[in-house]
Amino acid sequence: MDRTRFLGKLRHSQTCLTQEQILHSKTGEKDVVDYIFNSGVCIELRRWVYYQLTINSKHPSTQKYYKSSSARKHEETRHLTNYRRTIHPFSMINLYWEGLMAWVYLYMFFVTFFSTLFISNDYIHLFHMRRGVGDMIYAIDLIHCFFEGYYDNALHKTILSHKKIALRYIKTYFIFDLIALSPNLSLLLFVTTKNPYVVYMRCFGLFRIVRIKRLLDAFELIKNYRNYTSYHFKALKAFLIYVIVVMFLYSGIFILTYYNDIYTDYEIDNNSKTDFLSATLVLFLVSEGLEPLYNHILVVLVTIGIFCGFFIHLFLHAQVFQVWNKYFSAKSRNEDLMKQFKEYISYRGLPLKIKEKIMVYFNFKFENNFYNERHINYLVSTTLREQIMINIVHNYLKKAEILKNLPRNILVKLVTKLKSEIFLPDDIIVIGGKPASSMYFVYYGTLAVYNATGLEIAHLDDGDCFGERDMLINEIRTNTVIAITACELFHLNKSDLINALDKNPEYLAYIIEDSMRRFPMI
């Protein structure tokens, strides 16, 4: 083996060892950066920079894809040990950057719109300067996109490899971003705006409309980060789409009208006010504009403008109706349910601490979007209900040590018997000395295990299970388990496990034997 390959394998083994050490250490989520970067020049600055570059629990999307502290710690460790030069998509620096680019996107769209509206030489230097500021930020963003990871929903994994990131960007938005960035430099080659190619290049910035989804996603992140009202934000999002599409159509009409005037030798007066008013009359379905329709090209252009105006008005009306309908119906349901909670708490005379805990529970479970899960399960078919449950927990069951070698058909049987339970911090889940008739799987969250003397002996995280040995052998709980963070667990009764394995006794024997080997166990 040559020296280069040997050193590469050595570095890989050292990285894996470091990653294992971190995952099994007692470091918390915020201590991973300190654990990895423990020496060197400007250590505090480097730690701060990498803390901004890696996954952060404050990012709105983190809680969606990495619910528990254990999952976040594992992802942070993977990022910092293997992909340090990649910006994590759920990092704070990426959140701030996406927010900045959302405003730059709007700014550049307005600049492009007005630069196509005012074609005369009097304004060209003004728009060059305004456009130049935005283009410099866009140039940085073009490079940034090659270093920003993304979450793959199909793989349920964050992609941080530079090769995969670059390949995905080149296949999707790179060409559009490059075209939209080119006009400002190209226009410096021309000294007059009468050249039709100058006007043509000005409209290149309109290619940014293909990135409108990024703008909407950025505003969605801002809304979740700042906890803004979702219905007001939905109305704002619909308004932004409307404004951007209208500006895009305005610019398109100006450019096409200008070209038509050039190639038909029609006298051009460059009256921006008249052009703007004509386009407004067309898009708002008032008339065919102020200019006479002196050739078939203008007739086609006006017809397209009327069709576009009809559809954008239809979109706006549909969005307004949807926001109005959802706002009042959902608000009424949520308020009725919250009123019932408060009346129940008041009637029972519960103390303040219990009141707060009840509200924390419902906010954690429903995330302020209340729904009747029992009613939903009643509406769907039995097969669909089982498929929903299998999709939710099947991957987590495969992580459980005692079940990961079981065939899929047995796992499917077990999945249909699981019951979801939510526990808040400091909730006691099982108590030592009590009868053991069930076991638990940790969907997400962190739990602490205490022995009979009150000594903390272990922590349990996502994918762990507990209670199987006591359930199958001892029949009495040997330890106590308490929730450290908010947790969701899946509960499996002993009778359901035995019934699922009644035709496969060898698997039941395997589970009992495996649980005997594991220590400490509950």
CATH class of the domain at 381-517, named: Mainly Beta
Helicity, as a percent range: 55-70%
Strand content: 5-15%
Structural class: alpha+beta
Q: Tell me the name of the CATH homologous superfamily of the domain at 381-517.
A: Jelly Rolls
Largest sheet: 4 strands, antiparallel
Number of strands: 10
Any idea what the shape is? elongated
Rg, Cα atoms, Å: 30 Å
N/C terminus separation: 48 Å
Please mark out the parts with pLDDT under 50 across 5 or more consecutive residues, or reply none. 1-18
CATH architecture of the domain at 381-517: Sandwich
Q: Averaging pLDDT over every residue, what do you get?
A: 75
Topology-level CATH name of the domain at 381-517 = Jelly Rolls
Q: How do the strands line up in the largest sheet? A: 3-10-5-8
Counting DSSP H or I runs of 4 or more residues, the number of helices is 22
Structural features, described:
The protein has 522 residues and is α+β, with helices and mostly antiparallel strands. Among the domains are: 229-329; 339-370, no CATH class; 381-517, Sandwich (Jelly Rolls), CATH 2.60.120.10. It is 62% helix and 8% strand. The chain contains 22 helices and ten strands. The protein has helices spanning 3-24, 32-36, 43-53, 62-65, 69-82, 92-117, 124-144, 162-172, 174-181, 183-187, 196-202, 212-226, 230-263, 272-283, 296-348, 352-366, 373-379, 382-399, 408-415, 468-474, 494-500, 505-517, and strands at 150-152, 157-159, 419-423, 428-430, 438-444, 447-450, 456-460, 465-466, 480-483, 487-493. The protein has a four-stranded antiparallel β-sheet. The chain has a four-stranded antiparallel β-sheet with strand order 4-9-6-7, with no helix packed on it. Strands 1-2 form a two-stranded antiparallel sheet. Mean pLDDT is 75; it is low at 1-18. Keywords: Ion channel, Ion transport, Ligand-gated ion channel, Membrane, Transmembrane, Transmembrane helix, Transport. It comes from Diabrotica balteata (Banded cucumber beetle). This is Cyclic nucleotide-binding domain-containing protein. One of its GO terms (molecular function) is protein-containing complex binding.
